Amino acid sequence: MTASEIFPVPAELAASAHVNAARYQELYDRSLSDPEGYWGEVGQRLDWIKPYTEVKSTSFSGDVKIRWYEDGTLNVSANCLDRHLATRGDQVAILWEPDSPETPHRAITYREMHGEVCRLANVLKARGVKRGDRVTIYLPMIPEAAYAMLACARIGAVHSVVFGGFSPEALAGRIEDCGSACVITSDEGLRGGKPVPLKANADQALSTHAATAHVHTVLVVRHTGGKVEMTPGRDVWYDEECAKVAADCPPEEMSAEDPLFILYTSGSTGKPKGVLHSSGGYLVYAALTHELVFDYRPGEVYWCTADVGWVTGHSYIVYGPLANGATSLMFEGVPTYPDASRFWQAIDKHQVNIFYTAPTAIRALMREGDSPVTSTSRASLRLLGSVGEPINPEAWLWYHRVVGDGRCPIVDTWWQTETGGILISPLPGAMALKPGSATKPFFGIKPVIVDAEGVPLEGEAEGNLCIAESWPGQMRTIYGDHKRFVETYFSTYKGMYFTGDGCRRDADGYYWITGRVDDVVNVSGHRMGTAEVESALVAHPKVAEAAVVGYPHDIKGQGIYAYVTLMEGEEGSDALRAELAKWVRQEIGPIAVPDLLQFAPGLPKTRSGKIMRRILRKIAENDYANLGDISTLADPAVVQSLIDNRQNR
Ligand code: PRX
Predict the structure, then answer these.
(1) How far is CA 143 from CA 58, 241, 435, in A?
(2) Whole-angstrom Cα Rg for the chain
């Protein structure tokens, strides 16, 4: 088996899948030539309170306006719950697998979940949360996280889920930015047997930031039973409040364009931005892609291992699967606890049919050898998926051969927080697979590869990836900063959405994502702006200046390499290195801690004072032969000194 091998569509799948090759071509062509007609029909998969008559109203120029199904009204939670009650009320909606295999799992039916969501919606209302208000959700991977999202949707509140791995500082910044008055958290989270002090973190965020003083309610889920402080008046227990209210809450009628959620993500400059998604278009797109990309069939058990703190958890654990009436497995733990067989044992335990994870997890598990996998059956598996970063062919082949026993196609799904759902991916009944390629665009998606000047390239080409036309799942704006939205995504290449990714198209029209072309790094599938890590470092009193770049890392995909110039009179040491790591952990979270940190008395700068990151990237990559022209530097000698003191892996 070689990386250049092509894996054809299995004949049985071509015959039974939702979409085969001929149908793909027919529908793809139609979706581009008649987007109104195509998306108008597809939108009918949802239950609308007032049906839409206008399908698409979008423009990528000027002020950039993106509206889908504009005059329709609906409720997202009713689409994910209520409408399934008559046909599959007793089917499991969420299968919850806890951190420890010793703890009993939970199976929550659609009917039970409807009751839970209604109660929580009533609690939110009783605490004064209204339509349009923002609610911050800072929870571990427990069913209450999904209840909280849907309870917000039910009353028209806008949720902002903050990943449980973010620090109090990062949480405070996100609460402040969207002005949320209510935080839903739990006593603690649990990951790999270790407690995560979520409530204590929330307390710290709220007590040290005056700008969060508007938070009137902290709702606390009892999860581990760990001891927490409760601030009278502000903090209430989730279970106690839910016991006081009715299990019925009529869904609010929302416009298709009303915001459903904000999700913060990193960019190449400044603070994380609040990506804002709509109600109608987002749900249509999440549901359709979930059904077609995973070829989901009624009754199947589907498992996406992402955290609900990331967009993958939003679209492909909660919204897409539940809108489709699927059984969605939610896993609290980590792939290597109690041992490297955890994923595969859980697949056998719950008879999982479709499994969706990230390349970083695959690489980490691949390192443990085949036996943790082959000691399990995995006979229930039918389809595998990958998301979050480019998957190297070696990891792809191992995933296919060992995890999928050579039987299961792999859908390598390329998308972003901003896109709301999958844009480029195989449809498993339609596309032959090439390891490492996300293959072809989904319906309605028109990828364009441009050169540095913005000239679209035809045929076989490599350049920057843009999308020429809108799709319903596209983000609508950056919360509170539409100007930044326009500048970030629509000003580099006029009239097109710029993804920030590099991409190659081969002779067969297959797309190969080559990674970010901006100052964003992708560490273990977690997106991080180098500027954010830099500003965390320079906030330390001993740091004068910092420059952060990504470098190739065997397991994480990319690692974080930091060059730090200290204040006059400060001395670099291992102790200071550890202090700075701790500092970044507090400012942002563990995922932002540099893997390698080099004390650099000088950084390579142009005469106008701009740091030449290209050179820093090359040094971090150990690629000294290709430093390029360094003659324009203010002090070219800096480069040799950086090379001499490079940190080793
Ligand atoms: O660089 C691409 C990479 O992840 C970025 C988006 O990160 P985020 O918004 O956190 O969303 C991740 C989950 C959708 C992209 O710009 N990326 C995501 N999926 C792939 C990928 N790179 C290559 N192949 C993929 N399948």
Answers:
(1) 36, 17, 34
(2) 24
Please provide the DSSP assignment of 595-611 as one string: SEEEE-S---BBTTS-B
* Overall average pLDDT of the 579-607 stretch: 95
* Band of pLDDT at residue 610, cut at 50, 70 and 90: confident
Quick one: which H or E segment has residue 461?
strand 461-467
State in Å: Cα 415 to ligand 1 middle: 5
Express each pLDDT in 259-294 by its tens digit. Answer: 999 999 998 888 899 999 999 999 999 999 999 999
Look up tokens 């605490």; give the residue: 127
Whether the CB of 527 sits within 6 Å of ligand 1: yes
500 lines ligand 1 (CB under 6 A): yes
Residue with token string 């420059």 = 547
The helix or strand, by DSSP H or E, that contains position 57, with its residue range, turns out to be: strand 56-59
Is residue 400 a known part of a binding site? no
Q: Name the amino acid, one letter, at 395.
A: A
Q: Give the mean pLDDT of 335-341.
A: 97
* Nearest-angstrom CA–CA distance, 411 and 7: 12
Beta pairing class for 259-265 and 158-161: parallel
Residue 530 Cβ < 6 Å to ligand 1: no
Q: How far is CA 618 from CA 100, 149, 292, in A?
A: 42, 43, 41
Query: Within 13 A of 138's CA, how many CA atoms are on the CB side?
Result: 30
Q: What's the CA gap between 633 and 615, in Å, rounded?
A: 11
Helices (H), 275-375: 280-293, 311-313, 320-323, 342-350, 359-366, 371-374
Tokens of 384: 């595998």
Cβ neighbours, 10 Å, residue 4: 9
Mean pLDDT, rounded, for 216-242: 98
Coil vs helix vs strand at 513: strand
Phi, psi of 540 (to 5 degrees): -75, 135
| Candidate ranges 3-7, 175-179, 619-623; pick with highest mean pLDDT | 175-179
Based on the number of CB atoms within 10 Å of its own CB, is 197 exposed (0-12), middle (13-18) or buried (19 or more)? middle
Q: How far is the CA of 171 from the centre of ligand 1 (A)?
A: 23
Annotated ligand binding at 373? The verdict is no
CA distances from 331 to 89, 298, 302, 471, 496 (A): 22, 21, 12, 30, 37
User: Does any ligand 1 atom lie closer than 6 A to the CB of residue 522?
Assistant: yes
**CA dist 497 → 416, 453, 526 (Å):** 12, 15, 22
Helices (H), 496-602: 530-538, 574-587
447-471: average pLDDT: 97
Q: With a cut of 0.90, is the ipTM above it?
A: yes
The pTM for the full model equals 0.96
- The protein residue whose alpha carbon is closest to atom 26 in ligand 1 is 414
CA-wise closest residue to 93 among 75, 124, 74, 117: 117
SS3 of 70-109: the string is CCCEECHHHHHCHHHHHHHCCCEEEEEECCCCCCCCEEEE
Sheet holding 477-478, edge to edge: 235-237, 217-221, 182-186, 134-138, 158-161, 259-265, 273-278, 477-478
The per-residue pLDDT for 2 is 47
> From the CB of 315, is ligand 1 less than 6 Å away?
no
Cβ(513) – ligand 1 distance below 6 Å: yes
- The mean pLDDT value of the chain amounts to 96
Cβ proximity of 204 and 231 under 8 Å: no
